[in-house]
Automatic annotation (TrEMBL), chain A:
Residues 89-229 form the GST C-terminal domain. It holds the Pfam family GST_N. InterPro entries: Glutathione-S-Trfase_C-like, Glutathione-S-Trfase_C_sf, Glutathione_S-Trfase, Glutathione_S-Trfase_N, GST_C_Theta, GST_N_Theta, GSTT1/2/3, Thioredoxin-like_sf. This is Glutathione S-transferase. PANTHER family: GLUTATHIONE S-TRANSFERASE T1-RELATED.
Automatic annotation (TrEMBL), chain B:
It comes from the Eukaryota. This is Glutathione S-transferase. Residues 1-82 form the GST N-terminal domain. Coiled coil: none annotated. InterPro entries: Glutathione-S-Trfase_C-like, Glutathione-S-Trfase_C_sf, Glutathione_S-Trfase, Glutathione_S-Trfase_N, GST_N_Theta, GSTT1/2/3, Thioredoxin-like_sf. Pfam families: GST_N (PF02798). It comes from Rehmannia glutinosa. Residues 89-229 form the GST C-terminal domain.
Length: 236, 238
């Protein structure tokens, strides 16, 4: 049964799904839907996902969107996936669900709020919003602090005190990697104080090498492009 | 093994969990954590949930928060729960995950944005914010339209075309029921156009009767209280 991933590597949850599949030897066809070229708004893509968002998958005749649902589905539908990605134990599984749920309204909301309003809006021809960016940064910083103080435990490398990564590590780390498109000073200001987070990112990268770096390799180019757009916008 | 639910019936996700347990004959102790009395900020509750939010559960020595995670855990941990609440089939289950995920940033965000900034903030001693309420209402209305045009599509009365309710129906319907604390005119403006949604709320209520009405019986008195507080607040600023 054929698996198609409709993704844009600029989309954090798209990257999580790509890395997950590659790290687990799941074969797929990557169908690039480029947000910067508004391809997510095409009528063809609306057939795949009427929400017009990435990522989305088609597995045989089964369509699915929302990255957490997709990660859980892939971990469950493909027999070769090791248990630590999405444990069968209902207690461990419940904890994975709770951090994925928390993510929506905390890390994701803060990170998107900050990056969209300092950078990414420009790629859509929209104005930047410093006030919304400041609100986003506040939530982002609070979320990073909560990850360090609660979701990551001292003695184990991954979320929830796990010794091996779960889908939650991929989802949240890919979100934080989006800061690579921001100015170095801003990134260092926001991420620099959080040494435990930086270690966790490294551990997640090593656990999914070489795919993590491969999938993230387009971020420096995206950053340069967004910098250019910002310079152009300020000239106008 | 003892199950304790740390809930406030004013909290939409708290209600979803209470109704789920009652409708499935799951025994529990309801530990009321009253948000209006700031009980969620107590050091004792922080031991249960360091995020200081309701709902949270303790089952034996297992602690859990985030209502979707809780609903899934309860459906999985208690053997008497019928399959339709959280199907074992991987694809049906995936669809339930997708609507629960969509909920966070759409219906929930819109409904909370509107109702908190239009009404509930006052109960917590915070000012109302008409601009944020308007933004919330926009997202709320778009979400209601999406539920009607997409999530309720199919043969059955429930989300995802299902003939029986899932945890997703409980979660989303309890969110929409929060509009009961708003002014009738506002509620009618926002909800009135959506006949399919009104029918779905009715079907969900009937499927979990009499617990749905019992758990929601708090809404009327709360609405009256918020009306009073609003009147007082406008008298102070006049």
């Amino acid at each position: 049964m054929e698996l198609k991933l409709y993704v844009d590597r600029l989309s954090q949850p798209s990257r999580a799904i790509l890395i997950f599949c590659k790290a687990n030897g799941i074969e797929f066809e990557e169908v690039k839907i480029l947000i910067g070229k508004m391809q997510h708004r095409s009528p063809e893509f609306a057939e795949i996902n009427p929400m017009k968002q990435l990522p989305a998958i088609v597995h045989g005749d089964f369509k699915l969107f929302e990255s957490h649902a997709i990660l859980i589905y892939l971990a469950s539908a493909f027999s070769g996936v090791a248990d630590h990605w999405y444990p069968t134990d209902i207690y461990k599984r419940a904890k994975v669900h709770s951090v994925l749920d928390w993510h929506h309204s905390n890390l994701r909301r803060g990170s998107v709020g900050y990056l969209f309003n300092t950078r990414i809006a420009l790629a859509f021809g929209l104005p930047l919003d410093p006030k919304a960016a400041a609100e986003g940064e506040k939530l982002l910083s609070a979320s990073l602090a909560t990850i360090e103080s609660y979701w990551l435990e001292k003695d184990e490398p991954f979320l929830l005190g796990n010794s091996q990564p779960s889908i939650a590590d991929l989802a949240l780390v890919c979100e934080i990697m989006q800061l690579e498109v921001a100015d170095e000073e801003d990134r260092d200001r926001i991420l620099g104080p959080h040494k435990r987070i930086m270690k966790w990112i490294d551990d997640t990268k090593n656990a999914t090498a070489p795919y993590f770096d491969e999938i993230h390799s387009m971020l420096p180019l995206a950053k340069e492009k967004l910098k250019e757009l910002k310079v152009q916008a300020s000239k106008q | 093994m003892e199950l304790k639910l740390y809930v406030d019936r004013m909290s939409q996700p708290s209600r979803a969990i209470l109704i789920f347990c009652k409708a499935n004959g799951i025994e529990f102790e309801e530990v009321k954590i009253l948000l209006a009395k700031r009980q969620h900020h107590s050091p004792e509750f922080a031991e249960v949930n360091p995020m200081k939010q309701v709902p949270a559960i303790v089952h034996g020595d297992f602690k859990l928060f985030e209502s979707h995670a809780i609903l899934i855990y309860l459906a999985s941990a208690f053997p008497g729960v019928a399959d339709h609440w959280y199907p074992a089939d991987v694809r049906k289950r995936a669809k339930i995950h997708s609507v629960l995920d969509w909920h966070h940033s759409n219906l929930r965000r819109g409904a909370v944005g509107y109702i908190f900034n239009d009404s509930i903030a006052i109960a917590l001693g915070l000012p109302l914010n008409p601009k944020a309420a308007a933004e919330g209402e926009k997202l709320l209305s778009a979400s209601l339209a999406m539920i009607e045009s997409y999530w309720l599509e199919g043969h059955g009365p429930f989300l995802l075309g299902n003939s029986e309710p899932s945890i997703a129906d409980l979660s989303l319907v309890c969110e929409i029921m929060q509009l009961e604390v708003a002014d009738e005119n506002d509620r009618d403006r926002i909800l009135g156009p959506h006949k399919r949604i009104l029918k779905w709320i009715e079907d969900t209520k009937n499927a979990t009767s009499p617990y749905f009405e019992e758990i929601h019986s708090i809404m009327s008195p709360v609405k009256e209280k918020l009306k009073e507080l609003k009147v007082q607040a406008s008298q102070q600023s006049a």
